[in-house]
Queue: 2 jobs
Job 1
Amino acid sequence: MAQVLLVEDDPTIRTALLRGLGERGHAVASAPTALAGLEHAVTHRPDIVVLDLGLPDLDGTTMLRMLRGTSQVPVIVATARDDEREIVAVLDAGADDYLVKPFSAAQLDARIRAVLRRGTGTAADTEVVVGGLRVDPRSRRASLDGTELDLTPREFDLLHHLAARADEVVSKRELLTEVWQLPYGGADKTVDVHLSWLRRKLGETAAQPRYLHAVRGVGVRISAPGS
């Protein structure tokens, strides 16, 4: 059973999901606005947040960014918007999953369980060290040569996935599937953009790589300098 916070302004949808998730063993609280949802999340610390984007006071993406300033609680965005660019933007803002309406309580329950499984303690929670780079998924902190890196949630996820596969070539297809939870397609450009941002924070460029090495036509590999 999970403590679920449902941030949804439509009373019909809210009632149906409260009932459906409750029948599946979850303890569900709800909020009709972004500000009410933020207050509840900070005060009660739920296990997971289900967030609509079309809220009456703030856009859900804005609420997500505000929430990420204080909490790493898993967030599933549940909305009628299905534009790929918006999906990418929301995932980049820190969402853990994205569900397009209409959907059933059973579908949402399956997504909740899957997201929470990803957050349980496993070998994936072990700190990864590659040369002077240290990536700790438990604290979601990364440092380079003893200096902490200022990473966005998506940059951290990308760095951790690559570091956990050090010295292996990882394809863009895998990164989109495992880091962004997106199908491979036009959105692969977002991988290039995030790799560029990540290189900048690691103090390197594509032309003069230290850790991130592009393998043309295949993907990218992270390796310790000189290895």
Job 2
Amino acid sequence: MKKLLFVVMGVLALLIGAYPLIYAFVESKNTFLGSKSPELLHSMIWTTAFFAHITFGGLALFIGWRQFGSSFRNKYLKIHRIIGTFYIIAVMISSVSAVYMGFYANGGLVSAIGFICLGLIWFITTLAALVEIRKGDIIRHQQLMTYSYACTFAAVTLRLWFPLLKNITGNPTDSYIAVAWLCWVPNVLIAYLINRKVAVA
């Protein structure tokens, strides 16, 4: 079961990680950008933040899942470090962009706070993980990276929760507000349980 869940996580991460590519082939009005006002879309700062967020966030999601699994890390430590370097750079760029974008989130204040909190926790846990590995604390580094990738994986869970809630409630706006929290809070709680189980073991 553990291996099956890992495979599912990897497949979803690869699929959603490549999702930003649709912006090269699909008209903006038929994407998330279609929900934004013309004024916002004409803001160079916002559009730069948006594309930085989806590009580097997609990269972090696409490569980050492979970092988990002790057999891979032990066998390919150099590759693990290279991927980790790219992952941290990608998260730093994407999380800062996410915090800025959070102030303009659909759904108003509640969803804005949810996405801003996600961006801040994503940034802090990833930076802290870097600090810990430089100090040589591998266990703490792994725990923090588990939290970091739980935040990264919010890109996947958001796309699972939103259509489900929208179909159940028939209310896209309220569903999006709920998803601003549901996409990451359960992920972080699961990361906590994983870290706790590993610590006990």
